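Sanity check record (used in CI):
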Amino acid sequence: MSLINTKKYFTPQKMMRTVIISLIPLIISSIYFFGWRSFALLLWVTIFGVATEWIFEKKYGKKVSEAIFVTCILYVLTLPARTPFWIASLGIIFGVVFGKEVFGGFGRNIFNPALVARAFVYVSFPEQLTIQWSKSALGFPGGFGTYLTENIDAISQATPMLVFRETGQMASSIKLLLGNVAGSLGETSAILIILAGVYLIYKKVAAWQTMAGVIVGFTGLSSILYFLGFAQVPNPIFGVLAGGFLFGTVFMATDPISSPKTKEGKWIYGILIGIVTVIIRGYALFAGGMMFAILVGNTFAPIIDEGVNHYKKSKKGVKNKGKEVTV
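Expected output for Na+-transporting NADH:ubiquinone oxidoreductase subunit B:
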């Protein structure tokens, strides 16, 4: 049964519906951890996201793609629960226009639109996106019994990555796995994200090569720096579980449009993202790093595919030439 009841206004995309299904547990968990405001924010952003794409597609007589729902959900799940509605709507409009429509619409975009939206609001409104956090609810009914959980007013209760940067303390792996820590709406529960990743791989919607590449690149470099004694780089396990790393690995880096198409390219692309994430987290201004690392990867994705295909053709040419000489 289709998630969209009519084909009159939307272009059906089975792959996108699969992604939406994988995101449902994270949407529910965002309500549990931070309150019903997260769901209200999702509805608000979706209205503006769909309307923006409809305005552009209408000019060309095209329908709105179901991918816009995935873009809106992913974008909202990367936001803090207290993000002002006007900032959230401004971000999705910017992401759809400059991350998608300026390239010609769905299937032609170079960058992930959800990340373009997130990066825009992140650098434009740093106070709202990096300081105003909410406590994670515990027990029953959790956030289901409130509109918005309590505000955080101390660095010791902020997101795990921010706390590590300020104090060097690392949250327990159990908390990071379950998700009862402060953070963006859909990025706190590592176990739910991992299960979603397994589901997407099983459904052949997301490339496991990309996910594996990101993890290899990240854990490889972070392990080297950590064991060499660089204090600004946490142990690899904490690094993987914190800061939206898994969310970006499973849902953002694997975007089939803005990532490489070749298998070898997916590995290179993933490793590049993992390495850049470590560098940004440890030595740049930003505590997260995953968002910008994936955008960097998006930039190089076409070049990576071009290089891989060129290498294959060259290797094939040399092999054929060798056969001719043998004959």
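DSSP finds 14 helices and two strands in the chain. If this sentence no longer matches the regenerated tokens, the check is flagged for review.
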